[in-house]
Amino acid sequence: MRTSIASVCLSGGLVEKLHACAEAGFDGIEIMDADLIAAYESPEEIRALCHRLGLTIDLFQPFRDFEAVDEATFADNMRRARAKFEVMQRLGADMMLLCSNVATATTPDFDIAATQIGALADLAAEYGIDIAYEALAWGRYVSDYRDAWDIVQRADRANLGVCLDSFHILSRGHDPAGIAEIDPDKLFFLQLADAPRMDLDVLSWSRHHRLFPGEGDFDLIDFLSHVILAGYRGPLSLEVFNDTFRQTDVTRTAAHALRSLHWLYDRTAAQNDWTDLQLDAPQPPCAIDFVEVSGEDLSAVERTLSQLGFTFGGRHRTKAVRLWEAGDARVILNEQVRTPGSRLVGLGFEVGDAAAAARRAHAIGAPQVFRRTYAGDYELPAVASPDGTEVYWNSRTAAESWLDEFEGRVPLGEDTAETALHGVIDHLNVAYPWQEFDEAVLFNTSVLALDAEPASDVPGPRGLVRSQVMRTADGAVRLAMNLAPPTAPELPRHVAIRVDDAVSAARRARARGLAFLPMPSNYYDDLDARFGLEPDFLAELRELNLLYDRDEQGSFIHFYTPTIGDIFWEVVERRGTYDGYGAASAPVRLAAQRGGPLL
Amino acid sequence: MRTSIASVCLSGGLVEKLHACAEAGFDGIEIMDADLIAAYESPEEIRALCHRLGLTIDLFQPFRDFEAVDEATFADNMRRARAKFEVMQRLGADMMLLCSNVATATTPDFDIAATQIGALADLAAEYGIDIAYEALAWGRYVSDYRDAWDIVQRADRANLGVCLDSFHILSRGHDPAGIAEIDPDKLFFLQLADAPRMDLDVLSWSRHHRLFPGEGDFDLIDFLSHVILAGYRGPLSLEVFNDTFRQTDVTRTAAHALRSLHWLYDRTAAQNDWTDLQLDAPQPPCAIDFVEVSGEDLSAVERTLSQLGFTFGGRHRTKAVRLWEAGDARVILNEQVRTPGSRLVGLGFEVGDAAAAARRAHAIGAPQVFRRTYAGDYELPAVASPDGTEVYWNSRTAAESWLDEFEGRVPLGEDTAETALHGVIDHLNVAYPWQEFDEAVLFNTSVLALDAEPASDVPGPRGLVRSQVMRTADGAVRLAMNLAPPTAPELPRHVAIRVDDAVSAARRARARGLAFLPMPSNYYDDLDARFGLEPDFLAELRELNLLYDRDEQGSFIHFYTPTIGDIFWEVVERRGTYDGYGAASAPVRLAAQRGGPLL
């Protein structure tokens, strides 16, 4: 599979874009004329730079609104075309994208369009250039790829074919099955973009909201299957107009973009059983092995964990690292750093095959993490997520692998066994700046093998917080992602421990002196209005500052600790088959925390 | 006119919102239940605070999805309603908003809806509460205000009326003429919001993109005329869900919001000739009197102006202020500050009646500017725009008023008269951070009496730049506003001088040693491809680094100086009746400047 990317996906000047694409590992690039026009480098210089960087110029897009026009306009368009073919010759680009006319077309007659495009192709042939004709979703008379193919057939020139763009086809709901009808030799080019489902005019949707594959709602795996099965053998090229990518770091975006193509191609190969082309299979996690918190002095975190009912799991035999446990919820406190505060920095998953997960992550392009290990330490392969959190994979349970590196564990006595907190990690919650959110979704999909639940907006006192849960099908692993408003300060992360009896856990924690996040009295009045709760139960919720939710599946009781450093803790109980996160209470909690929106 | 605002328009907690509304000068507030639920203060405390602040609680919005439901749901809804009426009694709120059911309605039968709402009204009557029923644009069976009025008539209760919301009516394109059919005693409440025209699903449009009156595309003047002529005498209340206002400074947003109501009411009164209710008439500027630049050392600016062909207009007789002139383009350099760099800080307009402009601005709520003047100095009334730029009004020309405060002016000799730059200020260009843009649009509309041209997006190397020109009908005064991408650094401003012959001006400036912003050679190749220019003319453009545009009306030739401090200068020539700003060249110029997007 050859990979390519349109220069419009990236920020900066053309030379920077070329360097970023080469560094990310793309094979080629599509150049939008506007990027060349704004560059001080001549076409010859760009050509030479691409050659040195090992990038092919797969496509050049010099103008629009060519065909189906009156004779005077056609004559001027041919003059424009010749000038651009001369530029392409200097650039060494041999394929031109021609989008269907949106503005100047005066006739719906496909024969006239074909005649004019045929003349363009003949002129292009003098320069050794191919023309790839594409139906824009908002083209005046041609907005369906099947009509573009019809016109290409009518024009019938050797150097004329079609360009397919997933956005233009899927946004209109056109069936990609028709791609099989196209002569494979005429499938000249393929542009890929994902997008969220929006009920917005298609031009605005396309210009501002496209995403890289795996980040939106389109079924690109099915789409790419149709294209490849139809015989397309050209590059997979990304054309993603997105307000965010246009302004964020070009090198990072290019690397992110290439990962999306690796993921898409792998999933397409898997769906079609092209076994020799697939990466290692995704390894959906079956449990959270541990979370890791770092900071130069974590004694305050330790006190909170202890008050919650965690028990001391021992000191690492070689490092300034301690373990705290609450049943299968394991928290590693790492004081090997010299940074103040406390941050959630690591996350361990139990998976079927840790080595395969790591190989797959590497092939997709996730950066590997180096961690110093000592003789006898259990080695866990790891990668860095886009926000820097390290993700570890373990094919064994903690007890079967790294647990015995910790010494001095306090075993539970008969008395403490009853009062200790006992649970599992229900979910983690991480907030992202707006410019990193889509990249994190792709990482969680492609590298961590999690699926996205529908997103929702939660009103907080500093703005709307977008909440997007990514999880395994069985709910054993859940990552709640938040997109914070741009003006919000950096946000703490939180870890939720699921227990069988949150009310008792809350009573015991309070007895140990833990102050919970206090909830307003008005909140309990509203709970009563909404649910008509038993007075004793309501009084208990109110007394303990517990939060409550209920739906058709069951109910949810939970509470929060105050924030220490950049982290806080939640204890949750799920009754029945309740599968949510207490979204209705989230605005109240956000207001109570006020330091920032912290769903 | 009484004024009110929904608590959801503002950021922060309820107490902060109340303080901000009172400080801005609102008479009342609508409280959304979610804001009360998240508050630690009891309903009684909120009631007492509103009383102290002089705010009435005009409306309370406690729940949705009440009517047209099955019997079991209805019974539970009545229970919910009673609980909320008790809260309202504690709060001292006597009108409840009931939105048409979007989720749980099971029948389109208006008689059933009327029966259930009638029962709600009877229960409300026990608490002395009125119900205002509103058709949401996405209501399941009721989405038209005329249907809401139909149901209110069927229910026929004294304490039941309708609430009208401009968004729900205008977004659906419903004719507000039907408001005249509603019994004026049944017009219980009015909610006002503007919005940009978008082809987006109405729920998302409403939840994220509402604007204050005067900032969007709705004809609210016509709408409010209908409502008032129909006999409505309640408060004008703003209900604006907007992602930006939710997260920006609450005090500033409240002041901004109230200005929008003052503007709207004034324009409505003017349209209807309610002369006793109008403010002073708007004073559209007929010319730009001057621009003012400040900085502790402006010698670099002075050198640039001199190279451009400006001539020295004298020193102010009492202040560290100098004047430079190019015909009717006057630039005041103010070195009375101790800040480095150079900033565009002031702007003078010639208007018909400067005192009236100032009175109007004051009535709308624009902050007045105090400037120390000395005996004999000509006094110009002034206000501060949202970004801090001071705007001065002058009913006379500079020569008739302040010009003789400057001494030592160098008169043009016969030789210099020919080579000096001679022109007017064509336009100013100011970039705003995203969170200040809408407020600035309202200021330019309501206080400066400018009209908005359609906005466009310009791709720059650091992201899309939204460009919105506000101008007088005759084009004598034009302000180009830019909305910069959030990640961009603070942006310089620029001043464009219009001359009769930009090519000669460029040659002379170059002879004086001014280096223009260099344009890429590829840009000229593209100009040629687009326009087929005369070779000599193209060579001249290329040689002098001039930019060029052409349309059906004429053509545009212009060039830019480099940026000095936070400001740069443009010289433009308009041939024929060309009325644009060279938008097609803007991406190239943005790339050439690269310090940031600076259209």
From TrEMBL, chains A, B:
SUPFAM superfamilies xref list: Glyoxalase/Bleomycin resistance protein/Dihydroxybiphenyl dioxygenase, Xylose isomerase-like
Residues that bind Mg(2+): 427, 494, 570
Record-annotated VOC domain positions: 287-396, 424-562
First-tier enzyme category under EC: lyase
A Pfam family reported for this protein in Swiss-Prot or TrEMBL: Glyoxalase_5
Keyword set, alphabetical order: Carbohydrate metabolism, Isomerase, Lyase, Metal-binding
Pathway(s) this gene product operates in, as recorded in its UniProt entry: Aromatic compound metabolism; 3,4-dihydroxybenzoate biosynthesis
Sample GO molecular function, one term: isomerase activity
Cofactor(s) named in the record: a divalent metal cation
Catalytic activity: 3-dehydroshikimate = 3,4-dihydroxybenzoate + H2O
InterPro entries: DSD, Glyas_Bleomycin-R_OHBP_Dase, IolE/XylAMocC-like, VOC_core, Xyl_isomerase-like_sf, Xyl_isomerase-like_TIM-brl
Protein EC: 4.2.1.118
Top-rank taxon, per record: Bacteria
Signal peptide extent: none
Purpose of the protein: Catalyzes the conversion of 3-dehydroshikimate to protocatechuate (3,4-dihydroxybenzoate), a common intermediate of quinate and shikimate degradation pathways.
Binding site for a divalent metal cation: 134, 165, 191, 239
Protein name, per record: 3-dehydroshikimate dehydratase
GO process annotations (BP): 3,4-dihydroxybenzoate biosynthetic process
PANTHER family reported for this sequence: HYDROXYPYRUVATE ISOMERASE (PTHR12110), XYLOSE ISOMERASE-LIKE TIM BARREL DOMAIN-CONTAINING PROTEIN (PTHR12110:SF21)
Family: Belongs to the bacterial two-domain DSD family.
Organism from which the protein derives: Leucobacter tardus
